[in-house]
Amino acid sequence: MSASLPPKGMAGMPQPQQQQSHLPPGGGVPGQPPLPPQGALREISPVFLCRIGQETVQDIVTRTMEIFQITRATQLPNGVTQSQAMYQDRFGKLQEHLRQLALLFRKLRLLYERCMEMTFDLHEGPAELVPYGTEETWSVPVEPCSPAVLQERQEVLEKVRQKNQEMKTLMDQMRNLLWDVNAMLSLRK
């Protein structure tokens, strides 16, 4: 199951600067095999692309958390004058994270499209998996049951109805009790 990459493939896609600083020379993650050389990019399996996609999603989550940390650390201008340099530094970091996030989402889209191209023959439509309620269902041949089995079935169904009614009554009683407790607690305040 190998295919060639489209001309606009992921080989030219820039990696985030933060990730490049701690990767081994092969470009992979420590403890995992390095990325294949440039000539081997034509023989990439969907599993390998999914692993790259998983790492990309992890990078997206990390970048997003860093964006939230930067915005949480930023004070609102409530009449307090802050250092313009500090503001510009945080704004620059935020812009860089947003730019890298956009690149990561583009990379993830390319990976998704490539995986879909490589595995289009493996996808089953939802109609093949689960029939819809409006569609005709296959009739299963049912053998006639003996009267004793039908009687037992009716008895079991009646017991289930009674238990359901008892449970409904108990739930209503519990709901009323909780309502009363909450009312009493609100009056206490």
TrEMBL record:
Entry GO MF terms: transcription coregulator activity
Biased composition annotated in UniProt, kind: Low complexity: 1-24
Disordered: region residues: 1-40
Location(s), subcellular: Nucleus
GO biological process, any: positive regulation of DNA-templated transcription
Family the entry assigns: Belongs to the Mediator complex subunit 30 family.
Function: Component of the Mediator complex, a coactivator involved in the regulated transcription of nearly all RNA polymerase II-dependent genes. Mediator functions as a bridge to convey information from gene-specific regulatory proteins to the basal RNA polymerase II transcription machinery. Mediator is recruited to promoters by direct interactions with regulatory proteins and serves as a scaffold for the assembly of a functional preinitiation complex with RNA polymerase II and the general transcription factors.
Identification of the protein by name: Mediator of RNA polymerase II transcription subunit 30
Species this protein is from: Gadus morhua
Lineage, uppermost ranks: Eukaryota, Metazoa, Chordata, Craniata, Vertebrata
